[in-house]
Amino acid sequence: MPIDYRYHIGSFVAIFLALLLGIVIGIGLAPNPQELNKIASDLRRGFQEARTAREEELKALQDSNREYEMLAKETVAGLVSKRLANRRVAIILDHPFGRSELPDRLRALMQEAGATLTSTTAITREFVALPPEVRQKVSKRLMLYPPPGVHFRSVIAEAFARGLARGRPEVILDLQSLGLLKASADSNYSVRVDAVLLVGGPGTAGDASVERIDLPIIETLMAEGVRVVGCEARDAGVSSMALYKAKGIPTVDNADTQPGRLAVVLALAGANGNFGVKETADRFLPDIRAASP
Fold first, then answer.
1. Which pLDDT value is given to residue 10?
2. pTM (2 decimals)?
3. How many Cα atoms occupy the beta-carbon half-sphere of 48 within 13 Å?
């Protein structure tokens, strides 16, 4: 069938005329350049006014937040002062915290509360991983052999917790020399402890071994009559609170905040419950009025 070029030419002409008509109508409807400049100027002025208003609101909120933070800091300092006087407290970090300021802040908090901080001990990556060569060294050095069905990490954790509770440093120092524990320079394992603050909340699940290390530590310390409180930072990568809570110990899931600092001290002083802002928390803070100084 021959191609009818007249049909195609007619189609092109129709399309061209439609486009031309649209352009003419658009030009006719468009405002003149002066009106366009006025519209643009009004838009710029409206945007600048809105931006200035938002900046003023943001500054007011920042000032208000700074004032509340100062109030919270001063209030917490007054409430925790001497709250843990005459109590020997040890801190256990269930994973290396790297550059996190939380361990140092908790150490300072114990001093503010009047506690005697006996030691700060970190569970190392060697302890969490426990490669075969390290396992053999521990068995030979400490004569520790797990019974059937019990993880070797748990046996080591129990031995560490007993030494900490009873003020017997020998096992702890051996574990330290084998690279399974890392202690602060001022740690003293020769005295019995009244309470232990267990700091969890690793960045990833592989950074700690909560079920095989933390929980045996909790169970052993409780059996020895030591009060145990578990805590972590509000933004912890993996929360330890559910497992700690299941063991029946007080927990604080926002220990890096001013309310969390207060909750940690009150829990070490005797307040029971699960405090903070996460799903595992029962309430935000302990009853301050009921907590005796």
1. 59
2. 0.79
3. 6
